[in-house]
Write a structure and sequence with these properties.
Layout lengths: L3 E2 L2 E7 L4 E7 L5 E6 L1 H18 L9 H15 L18 E2 L2 E7 L2 E8 L2 E8 L1 H17 L33
Parallel strand pairs: 1-8, 4-5
Antiparallel strand pairs: 2-3, 3-4, 6-7, 7-8
Helix pairs in contact: 1-3
Length: 179
């Protein structure tokens, strides 16, 4: 089976399976359901943070960890808002779905390729720019929270609350007031 080039997706937490359900479709309407485990999802979010932190001109520098988290939270807050036009209707995958056993995240041009794998087989490919990676990482963490998966995991950089009007001010940066 050729991998699906993801054009739309829906993500939900399934309490009975204790997994995240990723329903995806391509531009032709082919639909596939993927199951993400807790361990895989935590690893994916950590990989996404490393990529985004390395790409950040401020957070990628030589900052203490607490400031890096604050900078990443501010960048996440700025970049994770939906674009114009909304998200569209949810994707519905009816088949049982495939368990994702691995992911690959690699830099490609001005963005990234996220590949979902089952054993060595590529199931689906998602092209992400920086904004889309922030949005997807934020959605993953919100669903992890639905399942109670964030114990022992630090999602502070993805917190909408942290980067709001009371976010810490970075030395040399003007404080921004949000209305």
């Amino acid at each position: 089976m050729a991998p699906i080039n993801i054009s739309r997706l829906s993500l939900s937490y399934d309490a009975q399976e204790d997994r995240l359900r990723l329903a995806i479709c391509d531009s032709e309407g082919s639909v596939l359901g993927l199951w993400l485990t807790r361990r895989l999802t935590m690893g994916l979010v950590s990989m996404m943070r490393q990529c985004l932190e390395g790409e950040s001109r401020v957070a990628g520098g030589n900052l203490p960890p607490s400031l890096k988290t604050s900078v990443m939270a501010i960048e996440h807050y700025d970049l994770s808002n939906p674009g114009k036009g909304g998200d569209g209707p949810p994707v519905q995958a009816q088949e049982p779905g495939r368990i994702v056993t691995g992911v690959s995240l690699r830099h490609k041009g001005r963005g990234y390729l996220l590949v979902f794998l089952h054993a060595e087989e590529e199931l689906a490919i998602m092209r992400l720019d920086k904004r889309m990676m922030h949005r997807f990482a934020g959605t993953l963490v919100r669903k992890m929270e639905d399942g109670g998966w964030t114990a022992g995991f630090d999602p502070d950089w993805l917190s909408d609350k942290r980067a709001g009007p009371t976010a810490p001010v970075i030395p040399g940066q003007r404080k921004r007031i949000m209305n």
